[in-house]
Write a structure and sequence with these properties.
Order of helices and strands: EEHEHHH
Number of helices: 4
Radius of gyration: 14 Å
Distance between the termini: 21 Å
Helix content: 25-40%
Shape: globular
Largest sheet: 3 strands, antiparallel
Mean pLDDT: 88
Length: 118
């Protein structure tokens, strides 16, 4: 099974889904929170082979709210939080903070705000 990054065109949020082909990944994306309101033709799909190793039987999508998945998304795909939706305190307790470039930047600016994307 292959890993694919999917997102609606011109949107910040993205997710990783697992599918055999680009077309199947686009179809699966329509059933994710990230792309649920997107039109099929407006979903961007790109291959992320470094995420293939996280596939398990039956797994369809990486889960940002699962600590292990979040660490993988940040470490292997460069995901960061949308600063419009998260507070600095969220970054302090995030399981992926040691891999997050944005957190490192926030450490230099303690009043910064932090929250998903690549």
């Amino acid at each position: 099974m292959k890993a694919w990054l999917v997102r609606e065109k011109d949107e910040f949020c993205a997710t990783i889904v697992f599918a055999e082909t680009r077309g199947k990944a686009r179809a699966l994306a329509m059933h994710t929170e990230t792309c649920e309101d997107a039109e099929f033709v407006n979903i961007e799909v790109s291959r992320k082979p470094q995420m293939d190793k996280y596939y398990k039987e039956g797994k369809r999508e990486m889960d940002w709210f699962n600590s292990k998945d979040r660490i993988a998304l940040v470490k292997d795909c460069g995901f960061v939080c949308d600063r419009d939706y998260w507070e600095r305190e969220d970054c302090d307790t995030c399981p992926a903070k040691e891999y997050c470039d944005q957190y490192a930047d926030l450490a230099d600016h303690p009043t910064g705000k932090g929250g998903v994307q690549e």
